[in-house]
Each structure stands twice: as structure tokens, then as C-alpha cells.
Amino acid sequence: MADSWEQAVDALRLAVVAAAVSGAASIYDEWATLTGEYRMPVDSSRAVRFEMLAVCLHAMNRFALAAGGPEARAAIQDAVTQGAIKEALAGVSGGSDAHVGFDAAEWQEWMTEDMMLLVNAADKDYTLCGELASNSGLAPFRSDTVFGKLASRITRQVGREELMPLRLAIWNSALVALNRARLKEQVEEVCRVLR
Known about the structure:
This protein is mainly alpha-helical. It has six helices and no strands. The protein is globular. The N and C termini lie close together (about 10 Å).
């Protein structure tokens, strides 16, 4: 069972990171068209990456709670979250332009702790929402759904709250990324192995 558990957790961790990267990349691709800015500012890029990762981890927790109950959610969160954050940060840092004497491992640990705080704060905000998404035509603009809240959080952080097409793109990116990564199915597989 240990091997099956580890394999299922590894696959889930990769699905979370893939969904976060895919969702963020989709927003990057549309940024210039939606905002008129040639390049996404660094602070905006950071907000998009971190919020996408946070929402993917939150969705994972919701799926785990639904599929396996509170114990499964806790076990999956403990097994996946920190590794997903480290993996996402490793993709960001690359390490190629580190200075002599720079301790990359120490930086990674510090950033992981910082990101855990951001993920936990976002998770508390997303927990207040009744559902991930809604089928209503106004879904991207509703902050009582997780994806609507995601769109609101990102547009606020990048100073584009009034830009409704950006909200729509963020909502769409998250929905497509989670479906493409088959995040719900991956979580259900981990729950099956856990039983």
C-alpha cells in the first residue's frame, strides 16, 4: 500500500502544480490583449502564480473532503501541499543567476514558509465560498464562488479590479486548468488508495 500511496500522492502533487502553471500561463498569454501592457509586471506575475497555486490546493482540499471526509482531506493536504509549493517555487527560481555565497536551500525553505502563509490566508478566504464555480452567466463576477473569489483577489492585487474581461479570463483559466489536470479524479484516486 505504501508504494501505491506514494505514487498516487506524487501524481496528485504533479497535477496540482500542472494545473497552477497551466492556469497562470493562460492568463499570461492573454495579458497584453486584456490590459494593453506589453509585459506583465513582476508583482502581477507573482500574484497570478501564487493565487493559482493557492486555488488549486484549495480545490484539492475540497475534492478530498467530498471524496474521503475530513481525515482524507487532512492526510492529502499534509502529503501534497508543501511538496507542491516547493516544486512550484523551484520552477520559478531556476537558480541560474544565484550569487556566490547565496544559499539556495535556505532561500527555498524561507520562500516555502512564506508561501504556506499566503496559501493558508487564501484558503481561509476561499473556504467562505459555497462552491467552486457556478453555471450562471455572472459566475466570473460572483465572489461567493471560489473561482469568482480568485478573479476578485487577482484583479485587486494587480490593480485591475474594474477590468471585467480579465476577471472572466482568470475564472476561465482556473476552470480549464483544473479540468485539464483532472484534479478531481486525481484526488479521488488518492482517496481510494487511502482506504
